[in-house]
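Lecture notes, unit on protein representations.

Consider one protein chain, 295 amino acids long.
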Amino acid sequence: MTTPIVKGFYDPRTFSVQYVAHCPATKRAAIIDPVLDFDPKSGATATLSADEILSYVEAQGLTVEWILDTHPHADHLSAAHYLKTKTGAPTAIGEKVTEVQTLWKDIYNWPDFPADGSQWDKLFAAGETFRVGEIDARVLFSPGHTLASITYVVGDAAFVHDTLFQPDGGTARADFPGGSARALWHSIQEILTLPDTVRVFTGHDYQPGGREPAWESTIGEQKAKNIHLTRATTEAEFVELREGRDKTLSMPKLILAALQVNTRGGRLPEPEANGTRYLKIPLDRLAGAAWDDAR
C-alpha cells in the first residue's frame, strides 16, 4: 500500500483540520476539506487558511489534482471554490450531496436552487476509485453525521471527516438534519475493517482536557482506545450513547451560515443590487437552542 505524504492545517477558530495529501513520486496532490475564514460577529470573510495551503503547495512544488470535500460542513465554510479558482483543479464530493441540498433547499426556501450536485465537478459514488498521482484512492460512503458523508482512503491514509475523532475525543455528533446515530455506527464499523496500520485523519479536534491539537491515529488505535467505541460495543449501546451525548449539544454557531455556502460548493451568495452579499438566517427551523433545558 502506497504512503502519501500528509500535511494537516489546524484552524483553531473552528477546530477544523484541513489536509494536503500528495504522492511523493509525482508531487501531485489532493486538498481535503479546506476552510474559508468567516467571522460571524462582523460578517467578514477571508482566505487566510486557504492561502496558507497554497503557500505550502508552492513551497513543496506540488500540483493540485483534486479539491475534495467529505460532506457539506456545518461548522465552517468551504474554500473549495476559491481554491479551484487559484489552482484549476476539479472539486469533488459524494453523490449523496444532492439529498443534503434538497433538505436545506427547503429550510432556506430556495425554490429555484438546483439540488443536483452541479456545483462540483465530480460526484463520487460509494466504492468509486481514483488516483492522486500514482497512489490509488477509493471512496467509502460514511453517512450518519450527514446524509452525504464520505471517507477518502488514499493509499494508507483514511480521511474520515466527522465520523471518528482522536481516540480521546470519541465520535462525531449525528443530530443534524438528516443525521443518524445508527447510520454512523455502521459507517464506523466499515472504516474499522481497514487494516490496523492505516492512518486515520480526522476532520476536527476539540482538544479534550486542553491538550495540544492532534489529528492522526491508526485504525488499530481507534479500535483499542476510542472512548466511545470501547464503552459502546454494540449498535444499541452506541446509539444510546451517541443520542444521549447529542442531547447535551447546542447547534454549531456557524451552521446556518455554513450550509448555505457549502451546499453551493463553497460559493458565497451572489451580490445584491448594492454590491453586497447577504446570508439568510431561517428562524425557528432547528432544534438545539442554547436555552433549552436539556442543554
